[in-house]
Amino acid sequence: MDASSIRNLCRHLISSAVRRCRMSGELCRLSVSLKSSPLACSPLVRISISDTGVGSCLEEFQDLKHLSDSTINELHDGVISIATTSACDNEIFHYSIDLKQKDRSKQLVKLPLSSKSGATFSGTEVSFSTFHSVDYLLADIKRFLQKLLIMKIPKVGIDLSVDKGTFTEHLCVNAIVASECIDLPSEENEACFKSGLVDYALRHGNQKDCICYSCFPIRERLKTGSGVVCKSKKGTETRIEAVVIISELSELINPPCSRVSGSKTEVIYFSDFTPGLISQPLLNALKSINWKQYGLSIKCISDEDGCAFIEWEDLPPGYHIDIAIHCHHNKYPSFLSTYAVDRNLAKKAVELALNDLKGKNDGILLSAHAVKIRGYAPVLAKTIAGLISTSNDSAFKGECASLLGLNSHDAISIEDNIKQKLISVIDRHDKEPQTKRMKEKELLLFNDDCFEEPEFSYEDYEDEDDEVSFSAFEL
After folding, report:
1. Under 8 Å between Cβ of 31 and 170
2. Is the pLDDT of residue 336 over 70?
C-alpha cells in the first residue's frame, strides 16, 4: 500500500497547525504523536497532530472532504477526529469527518461539547488511524519536521513522540526553551531563516542532534550569503528570501559523515513558513540563473517527488552547497488559497544571495574568466618584480617599494606583493555587477562573455502598478 497520500495528509495538517500558531502571536507548541498497536492483525497507527494556537474554523477542513479515494482507503475507518477551542470559548468543540460517507452533507458530524472547567486556553487536535508501519511514517514526518526547523519560527516549539506499544520513544525534535528565536518579533524572520539553514548544514541536513565538529571544527568553514526580494500588489506584499551556504569539509579522505543527497544540492523551498513542493516556475527560475558567472556548472536539475536537486559538474572535493528559498506574504492566506511562485522574484533572490556570498568572501564563486586571469597573476607579478629588481636606478626602486607599501627592495617580497594586488583587483572586478549601464559608463578591465547576465525586467509583471524592491540583508 502506497503511503504517499497519508504522508501528504500529515504534512498538510502540520502546515495548518503552524499557521494557527503563527496567528496566535503567543508562545505555542506543536506536537505530533504516533501510537502503534502491535497486537492488531494489521499494522495500525494512530496519528495525532495538535497545537496551542488559535482555534480552528470549520472552513479550514473543507478540503479534507475532497481527499482521493486512495487516501480514504488508507484510513482505518475513514474518520478524522477534530477537537478545537478558542481562548474566548467556554467549551471544547468536537467534530468527526466520515470520509466514507457518500453524502457529503452528512460527512461532518458535530459531537457533544466538553467543558473547559473555567480554564482559558486555545488549541486544536486532529487525529486519525491508518494501516501503515509506524517506522515508515516516523521517518517521513521526522524529515518534514527537520526541514521545518530551518525556519526557527518565532514563538513556536515542535515536539515529536512515538509510542510503539511496548514502550514510548519520546523524540524531542525542538524543545520550546531551546529555540533561540522563540522571543524574537516576526520582523526577525530572516535572521531565524539564515540561522536555521546554518544549523542545518552544520548538522548534515539535521541528521544529527548537534553540530558535527569532526567535519566543521570551526564555523568559518561555512560561507553564507542571503538576499531578499519584495513585491507589492493590491495591498499584499510578497517576500522571497534566499540563503546560500557553501561548506568545506575538513576531512577529504574517508569523511566520517555523509549527506543524504551527497554532492547534490537539495533546494529546500518554504511557502509561508512550512516546507512546500517545488513548482515548475521555481525550477525554471533555477535553470535561468547564469551559474557560470559564479564559477559553477550544472549537470542537471531534477524534480524528485516535489523536491529540486541540482547536480554539479567539477565541484571541488569536500565542498557542498545548500540553498533554501522562502516565499511568504504579509497577510495570512486563507486556508483554501494558493499562490504561484513568481519566477523572476525567485531568480533575483537567489542571485542576490550568491552575490552577497561572493562579495563577502574573497576567492569564492569566481567566474571561470576570473579564474583564468588569476592564473596569469604569478607570471605577470614575477615579470614586473624582475624589472624592478634589475633596475640600476635606486630612486626608481625606492619609489616602487613605497607604492607597494614595502620597506624592502627584496625581489621576493615585491613579487608576492604585486601578485596579491593583482589577485585582489581581479577578485574585486569579478564581484562588480556587470549591468548594461555600467558597461556603457566604463570600460571593463577584462572582457568575457561569461559576464553577460540577462537584466531583470519589470515588464514581466502583469500589473504596471506593482512596486518591486531588492535588497541584500547582512549576516
Report:
1. no
2. no
- State pLDDT tens for residues 113-139: 999 999 999 999 999 998 888 888 888
| Per-residue pLDDT reduced to its tens digit, 221-235 | 789 999 999 988 877
Given strand 156-163, what is the order of strands in its sheet? 108-115, 91-98, 79-85, 123-130, 45-51, 28-36, 156-163, 168-174
The more confidently predicted of residues 387 and 4 is: 387
**Quick check: 448 pLDDT over 70?**
no
pLDDT of residue 257: 62
Q: Beta partners for 270? A: 275, 326
Please give the C-alpha separations between residue 324 and each of 59, 243, 270, 273, in angstroms, as whole numbers: 31, 5, 8, 12
Residues 6+ apart with CB under 8 A from 75: 6, 99, 128, 129, 130
How far is residue 267's CA from residue 321's CA, in Å, rounded to a whole number? 9
Q: Position 248: which residue type?
A: E
- 3-state secondary structure (DSSP) of residue 77: coil
Burial class (CB in 10 A: 0-12, 13-18, 19+), 86: middle
What letter does residue 57 receive in the DSSP assignment? -
39 — pLDDT class (breaks 50, 70, 90): low
> How far apart, in whole angstroms, are the C-alpha atoms of residue 114 and residue 89?
11
Q: Which three cell numbers stand for residue 160?
A: 515529536
Mark 294-306 as b/e (b = at least 16 C-beta within 10 Å).
bbbeeeebeeeee
Domains of the chain by range and CATH?
4-176 (3.30.565.10), 186-361+463-471 (3.30.230), 368-447 (no CATH)
Q: Which residues of 179-192 are buried (b: 16+ CB within 10 A; e: fewer)?
A: bebbebeeeebbbb
Rounded to two decimals, the pTM is 0.80
pLDDT confidence bin for 40, thresholds 50/70/90 = low
